[in-house]
Amino acid sequence: MIHKKDVGRNRYAVLKLYLTISGLWPYHSLRDRYICFVPLFAFCFIIVIPQNWLSVNADVERTILQRHTSYGQHLMTFYAVFMHTTACLFVLKPILLTLMSDDIFNVTKSSILFASRLPFRVEYGQRFNQHFYPIAVHCYTAVFAHSFATIAVDGLYYTLIQHACGMFSIIGNVLENIGKNSKDNFDAKPDKIKDDNYSKTLHCLRRHLLVIEFAEHIESLYTKIFLLNFNLNMIGGSLAGIQVLMNLDKSANDIAGPVTIYIAQLIHLFLHFWQAQCLLDYSILPYESVANWYYTSERCRKLLLLILNRTTSPCKITAGKIVILSIENFTMVLLLYIIPLH
Known about the structure:
Layout: H1 4-11, H2 13-22, H3 30-55, H4 59-104, H5 132-177, H6 196-246, H7 252-283, H8 285-289, H9 298-311, E1 318-319, E2 323-324, H10 327-338
Antiparallel strand pairs: 1-2
């Protein structure tokens, strides 16, 4: 009798091996697929980015890529400081309120609810006060663990996007100079070996295809994450806005927490949409850079036509293949955020 496991183990062993490594074997659980896919995906980017740096020979191209890399690092540093500041404010708010209650109003510690000293509401039953300090450490650790994980995921996103934008910018710079020095001695049918414009265009075409594949990998990695993230942000933003409206007649202490979360979520979404818009803009840069095509050979023009044809469909980042991340669509999200405040 043939069992289901024997079919995959014996008759499709090679296929199963490669699908398992790729995280695509259908009989594995979703957790096992991600365990296999994420290291492979990270390994691919570890190879691709150094290869792109090694392929850059001219000083101008190296300067362009260095500028985009530095920009991505500065953006990640700003985001890390922003997230840690938000987490610290979220954690310190109940502590500061407790200290103010002890000092100003001369309230004893026993009269202050233990739950009010935590950054968020928890339910631990009747022994909550007895085990308050371990619970508090767990809550504070959870807040900072969440901020560290968010910084890691979003920081990788910003770095990859800026690297792709840098490569598109390099391709645009090379295409802009193709045919520039051929005005005086232009030849429509030169020898293939002597046709420098053809060699440069062929190299740009290969680079362009690799960068497009790189951008598609970024989109495939983050599309499901962004779909879940946007849904949670919309729900959280709406709840925070409603909480602000409910506490308008109370003190500023009751409004500070929801307002902080509200603004942090909005900035978080804006950075995602903004970087995706950068990828959209830079992916069509090769199309705008082909200016001196009429000073190139016929074989070179065919390659330029292939590049132009591919740039008509710009690279984009989506949320679940449904919503394209762009500044235009961010305005719609912003309206949805403002609606609860009216």
